[in-house]
Amino acid sequence: MQLEVITGSGDTTHNTPILFVHGAWHAAWCWENFLPYFARQGYMSYAVSLRGHGASAGRDKLRWHSAAHDYVADVAQIAQTLERPPILVGHSMGGYVVQKYLETHTAAAGILLASMPVSGVFGFVTRFVSRHLWVFLKAQLLLNPWYLVGTPGLMQEAFFSPYMPAEEIARHFARLQSESFLMQLETMFFNLPRPDKVKTPLLVLAAANDRVFSVAEQQATARAYGTEAEIFPDMAHDMMLEPNWQHAADRMLAWLQEQGL
């Protein structure tokens, strides 16, 4: 599979690379803050666009890509090209992909950033339907999750704080894309994460103002992996793009140092 990979490089002082995995409707571009920042801290850093996203192949079959199989295979493909097993960082749906990857693969460590919880997307769907019933029905009837974020207003409500500058909302909205409908089905019913199969140490970071996945869901996810979620105030779902993104990045760096990475 031809996959887009964006690299952040600097003076490498850490042996273990970092592989960033984006969430639904996004691509590798969403790590535009983290890639250079972690590179400046001495980490070789890579961000993959999963198949059908960004400049990767597979856009024509995006609707039926499996997150649990196809997207996991994409992460495995890139991880195998690295000199050693990477640190995996997954945001939102990317957190689901990281969890499924770690059920059958090893990694140096994993970081879940505003991740899809172990309970899947059922809670998100319930909350979304209470606010936007007709939008949700349209997405289901047309088998196209794009409509869930298909206006700048819906996107900001889902991903960003109210104080996010309008020009940034417009810039990010222009880069969003459609997403797999099969992924929605998998993560609601058919293929939820299996924490009992994961042995890799995990850091779970969450945003207090996340309107996609609740703090309670993030805390439950952390408990399932034998840890505690760390909650960042004044942040929304897209923690890596929020104005105060560096707060999350610095906590990640501190945790990696604690792990000897």
Provide the descriptors you would attach to this structure in a database record:
261 residues, alpha/beta, 10 helices
The ordered string of helix (H) and strand (E) elements is EEHEHEHEHHHHHEHEH
Describe the global form: globular
| Fraction in beta strands | 5-15%
Largest sheet descriptor: 7 strands, mixed
Number of strands: 7
Number of helices: 10
Structural class by helix and strand composition: alpha/beta
> Which strand order does the major sheet show?
1-3-2-4-5-6-7
Give the helix level as a range of percent: 25-40%
What integer value in Å does the Rg equal? Answer: 17 Å
Report low-confidence residues grouped into runs of 5 or more: none
Q: What's the mean pLDDT score?
A: 96
> Terminal Cα separation, in Å?
30 Å
Describe the structure.
- This protein has helices at residues 34-40, 67-79, 93-102, 122-131, 133-141, 152-159, 166-173, 181-190, 215-224, 245-258; strands spanning 4-8, 18-21, 45-49, 87-91, 109-113, 202-207, 230-232.
- 38% of the residues lie in helices and 13% in strands.
- The chain is built from ten helices and seven strands.
- The chain is of the alpha/beta class and 261 residues long.
- Strand 6, helix 9 (215-224) and strand 7 (230-232) form a beta-alpha-beta unit.
- Strands 1-3-2-4-5-6-7 form a seven-stranded mixed beta sheet, sandwiched between helices.
- Helix 2 packs across helix 3 and helix 4 crosses helix 5 (133-141).
- The mean pLDDT is 96.
